[in-house]
Amino acid sequence: MAYDKFNVLTSTVVPLPTENVDTDQIIPARFLKATEREGFGDNLFRDWRYDVEGNPKKDFVLNDSTYTGKILLAGRNFGSGSSREHAVWALYDYGFRCVVSSFFADIFKNNCLNIGVLPVTISPEFADVLFAAVEADPSTEVEVDIDTQKITLLSTGQSESFDINAYKKENMKNGFDDIDYLLNLKGEIEEFEKGRA
Amino acid sequence: MEKKTLFDKIWDAHVVKSVPSGPDVFFIDKHFIHEVTSPVAFLNLEKRGVGVLHPQRTVGTPDHNVPTVDQDKTIKDKLSRMQVEKLRENCKKHGIELHDLGSAHHGIVHVIGPELGITQPGMTIVCGDSHTSTHGAFGAIAFGIGTSEVEMVLATQCIMQSKAKKMRITVDGELSAGVTSKDIILYIIAKISAAGATGYFVEYAGSAIESLSMEARMTICNMSIEMGARGGLIAPDETTFDYLKGKQYSPKGEEWDKAVSYWKSLKTDDGAVFDKEYHFDAADIEPMITYGTNPGMGIKVKGNIPSTEGMEGSNKTSYLKSLDYMGFAPGEAIQGKKVDFVFVGSCTNGRIEDIRSVANYVKGKKKADNITAWIVPGSREVEKMAHEEGLVKILEEAGFELRQPGCSACLAMNDDKIPSGKYAVSTSNRNFEGRQGPGARTMLASPLTVAAVAVKGEICDPREIF
Fold first, then answer.
1. CA distances in angstroms from B355 to B350, B382, B391, B447, listed in the order given
2. Chain B contacts of A178, Cβ < 8 Å?
3. B465 pLDDT above the threshold of 90
4. CB within 8 Å: B411 and A29
5. Which of A30, A80, A166 sits opposite B228 (nearest CB)?
6. At what angle do helices B181-192 and B214-222 cross, to 10 degrees?
7. Is CATH 3.30.499.10 correct for B290-456?
8. B335 close contact with A: CB closer than 8 A
């Protein structure tokens, strides 16, 4: 379904440097039982965020009020494993609009783009710069500009450009999704099918 | 003429249109749905006022959260029940074939597709489940999708996908006794890492792969996603055709001959270029097991857990966090570690050959007292064969508990959970933290290794226990 338009996002950052964070950590399977897309943010990183009794674990970053923001700065190979789109729903519902990492798992990245969370791939070196800056000063802001495809650490002005294909970029900027596009191609799809028969 | 890979041939034949500087509009031949990732897709279709374009191209079955006992009774868990009921309702409303709980062909979606002959060479197959790559064993392009894409397929039979890069992994030579296809794939993932094939579609080739049965090939393609690959596939051959012949949905008569002659063209041309190639020697592969919290963290059963030498920064922190979760230390041997549970099942290793392999091994033996042993067939058909072949009797005599078909403890959405802190050696596909239940510690291995562990009660090499 349509989502919020994404143009320029300026926000503080929540750092999660752990590598290989799989979608079972982002949202464990036992919380996938809904038949509607609601309330997934409550269970985002459930088992890292809460103990078995449901008490917040103090050492987990989402429970540390020092760090807030709409940008999640993640470790390498973020979103591996299960194709569950619920992982992105949980991030979105929690309030994240952008995930920054030096490496994303494939299906996760696609799922992000399909529901309006911008995945930004940066170099490992720039990731180190951002992690260090946020650790030194949690009020550090980062700007993500989809039009210029640039991510900037505002305190120093250091920036890097990122890739996004032109089609997805337009979608993100306008809050369109693929189904809007595909439904308009009905005729062409029919022609294709006739050609194969 | 342009030299094409198998992947190119199938991909290019399914591109409706290429969006300039964007993805391809990609046509889908077969779509599998289950209860967990489809309800929101149907709900959104309704909100848009759009119907299902080709209901006959979609097949449904409830597998992820179904109980594996008392399947003839109402599902106790309210949320699970609601999801299964939603699937029934949606299939009925849109005229989609459903293999419901208790029906003759109910089972894990990636087990029943091949079993029924729905999965065929040259097809494009998707499902809201990353292990859809399983179907690649038949020489199909098969991969997992998100719920937005499930909605796209229902509405338009297409999704928007950029073509992946191409990788070929060749395994030549002969496998030693006691080494199975599960060991091959765990070995490959350990070599190239859990992210080593991200962005690629993998073709598996070589004499060791060609020598495998369809069941064994499915195990390999199934775990392609565990090295980050979009999917994996194997060129169809006589083994593929023999498997498919006579299956319920396989072509019949003249149609069969026509299909086979097309299927025979589905192979990589000599001289076609891959973006990346790996070569492995089957003789180097030994029984494998994982020791950490991603499938790339695998070693030989006789090996030692890697030390932290050469690791630094977040790489080292993540590694130690993983070992801490598992209760293991760097450098120590894995053989001899005590185990609490064994789980045989899942879309990776829940097929009849897997159950035969375990039964042959445990025949006349007993599981160790410290082990709880669950065996969950991948489908009703597998369950039926296991009974008919006398395997169930052998397994029960050895102390295994046979449960009813479903995804079960692979992802523990139902009650089949490994308790916190306990060790399970499983034939499934993921050893992520909490995958088999909050706090559960999973080690992945072949059905044969799992059988040996069940008997000995600790990690051991299946070639040494008789």
1. 7, 9, 8, 8
2. 148-149, 152, 159-160
3. no
4. yes
5. A80
6. 20
7. yes
8. no
Q: Summarize pLDDT for B28-55 with one digit per residue, the tens.
A: 999 999 999 999 999 999 999 999 999 9
Beta bridge partners of A119: A99
Q: Tokens 């591109």: give the residue.
A: B15
Indicate which of A16, A33, A78 best probes the interface with B, i.e. most B CBs within 10 Å of its own CB: A33
ipTM of the complex: 0.95
Please identify which residue in the block is written with the tokens 């199975």. Answer: B180
Homologous superfamily in CATH for domain B6-163: Aconitase, domain 3 (3.30.499.10)
What is the rounded distance in angstroms from the CA atom of residue B250 to the CA atom of residue B119? 9
Helix axes B214-222, B352-362, angle to 10 degrees: 100
Q: Smallest CA–CA separation between B48 and chain A, in Å?
A: 9
Choose the CATH number for B165-236+268-284 among 3.40.30.10, 3.40.1060.10, 3.40.50.300, 3.40.50.1220: 3.40.1060.10
**pLDDT (tens digit per residue) in B228-251:** 999 999 999 999 999 999 999 999
Topology agreement, domain B6-163 and domain B165-236+268-284:
no
What residue segments make up the domains of chain A, in order of their start?
Answer: 8-196
CATH 1.20.1250.20 assigned to A8-196: no
Q: Is the pTM of this model over 0.95?
A: yes
For position A1, what pLDDT does the model report?
55
